[in-house]
Structure formats: structure tokens, C-alpha cells
Amino acid sequence: MFTDLQKKVVIITGGCGLLGKTFVKAVLDNKGIVVVADINAEQLEKLKVEINSPDLFTVVLDITSETSIKSAIGSVQKKYGKIDALINNAYPRNKNYGNDVEKVTYQDFCENIDLHLGGYFLCMQQFALFFKQQGYGNVISMSSIYGVMPPRFEVYEDTDFTMPVEYAAIKSGVIHLTKYFAKYYKGKNLRFNCISPGGILNNQDVRFLRKYNSLSLNKGMLDREDITGTLLFLISEASQYINGQNIVVDDGFSL
Ligand SMILES: NC(=O)c1ccc[n+]([C@@H]2O[C@H](COP(=O)([O-])OP(=O)(O)OC[C@H]3O[C@@H](n4cnc5c(N)ncnc54)[C@H](O)[C@@H]3O)[C@@H](O)[C@H]2O)c1
To answer: What pTM was estimated for this model as a whole?
Structure first.
């Protein structure tokens, strides 16, 4: 156990995904209550069976719908009487996401920004309204090293993927939105921070990994569990006066 979260109620959007699932387990392991909020109802059911904890609750949530967010806040408030933290972690993208910058259409660029940056904004806005009434609240949003540095295109050479241009715009936007919200809610006992991980191991091509790792300091590309300490710290009281900040967790890749 890293820290005792003392039954804090933590909502994790995109909680069925790669990092989300790891975050769910970490919060439960540290005595928190988790609400997994994901657009994928089937995956939510699977996760409930897999984790099988009395401290796990699930809601179907679309981060791009104000009605859906309001309804999720309502059902969590009804069940637990409070919400301590929102983890903005969903990863929506449209079917053409991931193209080379020269092939990205205006429509695809805008749609991906709407879904991801727009969805993060909407969650921050709607939860902040709730948190203001509640008298406290904590929002942690997932950004990325690619929100703070330009892509290292050389690590993608000879692979069939790239660092999407939309991602750069979205993730830098998430960092700045975090600062905007933190300042806007001055005096209201609300916190807004973000975490910027480097790439996370997920069966990537070995040639890509070799290049990526050569630019890191000790371990190389991180495992998903390597991000949980920072998340738990930001949820906990130990980080009480950290506000409007971005914490990079990348084994020095961005240096
Ligand atoms: N995986 C990485 O290498 C990495 C690195 C840095 C940052 N991040 C960030 O971490 C976060 C999580 O990434 P991941 O790799 O775990 O993603 P993932 O694709 O594995 O999971 C994303 C989850 O979001 C859900 N989702 C999609 N659209 C949604 C919507 N409209 N509303 C609610 N839920 C929705 C999906 O159903 C899925 O469960 C993202 O913000 C991502 O940018 C990931």
C-alpha cells in the first residue's frame, strides 16, 4: 500500500482502458472507492466481474455529453453522498485518428480535438460546478510528454505509426486548461493538476523500443504501474498544496 486514501470516492473516466484499469486497481488497493466511468458498457461489465470489489461502482459515461456527465455525477452523489476526485483519463478518437500530419483532414483534426480536449474540458467544467457546491474537489487530468515537448519523430521511423498532430494540440491544451481552471477557482478549495507520462509498454515493436529506451535515463519505456504512485500522491492529502501543476513521469525521456 502506498497511501491510505481513506475511502475517498474517485471517479476514473476511461477506467476500462490500459492505464485506467491499472488506476482502478491502485485506488482500490489503497483503500479508496472507485467509480469506473467508461463509454464501453460491455467492458464495464467485464471489469466488475474481474475485480469483484464492494468498493467498485460503474457508470456508463460519455465525456462528450453534458447530460451523461450530469447523470453520472448524480448517481455517484446519490450512492456515496460525495465525490473526492475526478481522474480525466478517457481516450476518445475517431476512426481516422493517427494519420501522418500531411494526410490529416480539417474535419478529422477538429473532430479529434472536440472528442478529447472538448471532453476533458466538459468534465472539468461539470465536475468543478459540483465541487464548488460541495466545498472541495480534486481533478487530475492525463496529459502526456507530447503535451510538453515536440515529437521525437526519429523513434517512429520504420514503424507504421506516428505521434499524431491532434495529440500534441490536445495534450498541451489539457495542461493549459488545468492551469486555467486552477486559477479560476481561487479560494474555492478545488485542485486541478495533470500527469504527463511518457510512452507506456504495450507490446510495441522491439526496434521502436530500442530507440525509445536509448533516449531514457534508467529503465526506458515505463510499465503502466509506474504511473500509479504519482496518481495516488495527487489524490491524497500529501499533495494538498500542489495546484495547477503538471507532473512528468517519463524516466527522463523528455530531457
Ligand atoms: N498509453 C500510453 O502510452 C499513454 C501515454 C501518455 C498518456 N496517456 C494518456 O492516458 C490516458 C489513458 O490512455 P490509455 O492508453 O489507457 O487509453 P485506452 O485507449 O487504453 O483506454 C481509453 C478508455 O477510454 C474509453 N473512452 C473512449 N471514449 C470515451 C468517451 N467518449 N467517454 C468515456 N470513455 C471513453 C475507452 O472505452 C477506453 O476504455 C489518455 O488520456 C492518454 O492520452 C497514455
So the answer is: 0.98
